[in-house]
Amino acid sequence: MSTDASEGLPASAPSHVASRRVADQLKTAILEGEFLPGSRIFQEELAARFGASRLPVREALRTLQSEGLVTLRTNHGAWVTRLSMEECLEIYRIRERVEPMLIADSMQRLTPDDLAVILELAQALDQTSDIGEYFRYDRQFHLESYRASRLGYLHSIVERLWNVTQYYRSAYTRLVDQNGSRWILDSEHRLLADAIERNNVDDAVQLIETHIRRTRVTLADHPEIFEIDATV
């Protein structure tokens, strides 16, 4: 039986299985910055890279469009979603309002195992000196703190907002690391982890709102972050 060399899948595997695999791998590549915002995505190249036919590639692109990572233009192809500074700041204003709701709901349902994961990620954030690791731990830490929420619709919206601003948060994280102000982020993460551990919802809500606002204000002061030279 012939198989997909990259994943060991049968060549006759259902299209939706192949499309999910392509979507997951392309999502990782975009989130890790391999594809810059505004980059053109060529279906033929993806099909060759992931060992898939064009049908599951098209399905994967539609999936990533629904997750905010890809923009599909009729008769023009697919592109990695790009934001203007104004659009990005608008998203941060939305996040300032809705993520406090999400963490408040989640904290009511966190299990001891959930808490252990959150505290472990907070410790990893505090200890790593690698900026790439720091950025990955930061995303995991915050999304894990929301995971127990039963506000499913809001949770999916927030994750989409995180996806579409991933590149800009990465640029912000590198900026504060370079200018020596990462200690502020570290302090906020430690305080937030402590509030979650104490199950103090009021403190957590205030901290997450301040945390997001600080990023928005810093991004507004650095328009050069949005001047991306993507190959198109």
From TrEMBL:
Keywords from the named record: DNA-binding, Transcription, Transcription regulation
Residues that span the membrane, as ranges: none
Residues of the HTH gntR-type domain: 16-83
InterPro entries: GntR_C, TF_FadR/GntR_C, Tscrpt_reg_HTH_GntR, WH-like_DNA-bd_sf, WH_DNA-bd_sf
Highest taxon above the source species: Bacteria
Pfam family, one: FCD
Xref: PROSITE patterns: HTH_GNTR (PS50949)
Protein name: GntR family transcriptional regulator
